[in-house]
Every structure is written in C-alpha cells, then in structure tokens.
Queue: 2 jobs
Job 1
Amino acid sequence: EDQVTQSPEALRLQEGESSSLNCSYTVSGLRGLFWYRQDPGKGPEFLFTLYSAGEEKEKERLKATLTKKESFLHITAPKPEDSATYLCAVPGQNFVFGPGTRLSVLP
Amino acid sequence: NAGVTQTPKFQVLKTGQSMTLQCAQDMNHNSMYWYRQDPGMGLRLIYYSASEGTTDKGEVPNGYNVSRLNKREFSLRLESAAPSQTSVYFCASIGTGSWSPLHFGNGTRLTVT
C-alpha cells in the first residue's frame, strides 16, 4: 500500500528565513510526485510535477527536488504570502496525499 | 476560466438528513474525483469516475453515493448524514496523460450536528 508522510507538521519562519519541507513516500514503484499549495478555505493548487529521481523544479522562491525515497520543497527567502499548507502526492490508479505541512511566514 | 466549481460552499445538516454536493468542470476532463479532508489525515478518496457512465469506490466510500450525470458533472450524495461525515469535501478532475495533475474545486464545508 502506498504511503506518504510529511514533516514537519507545522513550520513558522521569519520573513527571509529559508527552510525545507520534507515529503517521504513508500510506493511499489516510483511514478513521480506532485506538490500542491493550499490556502485556507481553498482547494489545493498545483505547483510542480517531479517525474524521476534527481529532477528539480523551481517557481519563484520554491524549489522542489526528488530522490528515490523522498522529496524536498525548499523555500528561499520566504515572504508572508508564502504562508499556506503544502501537500505532496504520489500518483497511481488513485492519488495518495500526505497530510501536509502548514507554513507560516511572519513579517 | 472557472475550472472546477462546487456548490454549496457551506452546509449544516442534522443527523439523518440527506443532501447532494454538486460538482462541475469545464475543462473537458474524463476523470473526476470526490475527496474528504480532515485535520491531520490528508485528502482521502471517497469515489471516483474514470469516465462518463462509470464510478468506483475509493478509500472511504461508506455512507456516500455518487452520480456521474454527464462528462461535466459529478455529484456526491449523503443519504443519512452522520456526525462522522463532518468534513471539507473537494471535487477534482484530471486530464488525460500519465503526468496530468488533479485540478480541485474550492470545497464544501459540511457540518453534521
């Protein structure tokens, strides 16, 4: 059974303080990984698809990386508008989602 | 540029009442999904429809029924609501292609008292 975990559960950063979020997965065969951002009261919004181990994707202050067992979402010099819950998911017959990391960036 | 639209946004039910959550997408996607999201548990799949005319159970189907009305619309029905069904419900759709991401609506927040 595919399983996805995320850490930390919550993270508070000062504006400009870089950090990383982790997504670990146990799957029968790596089929790529998706990252989403979710704002309060909204549905998840697609950020990145990572297709294979070693791949990296960037968007503004976010950079996602993928290994054979985990993915990291690096946030460089975050701003308050980056505050959100970040979800990762592995695809298959059905998507399996992690529980998310709730990020707060304080001004 | 609506994407996935869900109605209603909020609903309060009493135990035993029934209701239908509506979902429509305008992206010509074949597959549609219903998830529930609870604190600390992530998104869990209730039902999905791989194409018009087909539906299948997901991880947590008990207490729910679905109807794929046409290619655009996929509804979720609670026949006899229970407090355990208090949750936020999300509808999603996905295009064809191995690496297509899910596109989500903005959810229905349901409280069952």
Job 2
Amino acid sequence: ETGVTQSPTHLIKTRGQQVTLRCSSQSGHNTVSWYQQALGQGPQFIFQYYREEENGRGNFPPRFSGLQFPNYSSELNVNALELDDSALYLCASSLPGDQETQYFGPGTRLLVL
Amino acid sequence: RKEVEQDPGPFNVPEGATVAFNCTYSNSASQSFFWYRQDCRKEPKLLMSVYSSGNEDGRFTAQLNRASQYISLLIRDSKLSDSATYLCVVPGSARQLTFGSGTQLTVLP
C-alpha cells in the first residue's frame, strides 16, 4: 500500500451535476497530481498541486478544478458533468524534490449517466 | 505523433516464456523513464525506473535507446502473477507523468 487514500471509491452522477473527489497524500509528500483514466486507456494528466498552488495543467477544460490544503490533501471538482467524464480518477503524491516518482491512490470510479 | 506510444497488444504467453514490450517517445529531451504495472481495476504501481541505458531487477530488464527514442521491457520466465497491463511512462515538462495506453499481458498456465 502506498499510503495515498481516495474517497469515495465509487460514485454515480447524472449529466450536468457537479462532483468533488478527495485525496489524502502519503505522509511527507507535498505534491499531488490528478489523472483521468478512461477504460482501455492510460491515465491522462489533469493537473498538479504543489504547496497549495496549481503547478501544471493538462488538456482539460476549466470545469475541472482543484484545491490543495495546508495538510497537502487535495480535492478535484468537476462541474457540468458530461457522459465522457465517466472514468477512473487517480490521485498521486510525490516527495519534495522527486516529483517524477509518484505514488498512486486506489482511485475513484465515476459513472455519469 | 503521440507523446508515448506502446505496442498494441494484447500479449498472451505461456508460463516460462520471455516477452518484450516496446515503447516510443517523442520528447528527445526526456531524461528519465518508467514502467508501471496496473492490475485489473487497480491503481498503477511503479515497476522500474530507467535513467541511463537500462536497468535490471530480477526477471525484469528495461532498456533505453536514446538515439531511436524507445524503451523496452523484457520479462523472462513469465509467471501467472505477471498478468497485468504494463504502462510506459515519460515525465513531462512540469514533472507530470505522460502515460502510454498500456500493453495487456496474460500469462497462460
């Protein structure tokens, strides 16, 4: 186990709704990254947070937003859900100075109907 | 060209076989590379890191060819427990990880 936890494990929403996913990073890890993994694909980078600020963003629209808290835990918010947002959402944390080595949580499986 | 491309798979091999996966990347400035393993409905887990020409860990060998911009993963003496999806990963400019689409391996008894 990596020590990265995510909640909830599964979620069902309908189109147009909003969702908040949560992540607690491994102890001592101050960088958190979020990824979206559609079925049969590799994870796609959404954004990264370092010291409570967004530190890089992938090709995702503004309705995907995030937060990082002083204890380094993080939230991913998605507004105006679309059917294509159905995916596994993964959170990964990394140590200061070693952002390339990332430890993944078990993910939240989101289904949008 | 995609940033990271992998063998399409799937690979179905008998126990004890040797199997190799290839991966190509587009960013010639990349310095480090990773192979992750992902079991069905689980999170990716780091299998190996590659920083120079290659890395070996037991039955697993990763090789890097910078001139041709490809990375390979060789698994010798395959076990049933090796069945998984193998993801080739290249860090991006902001230290985010860029994943290939993965190669599915099934080791058959």
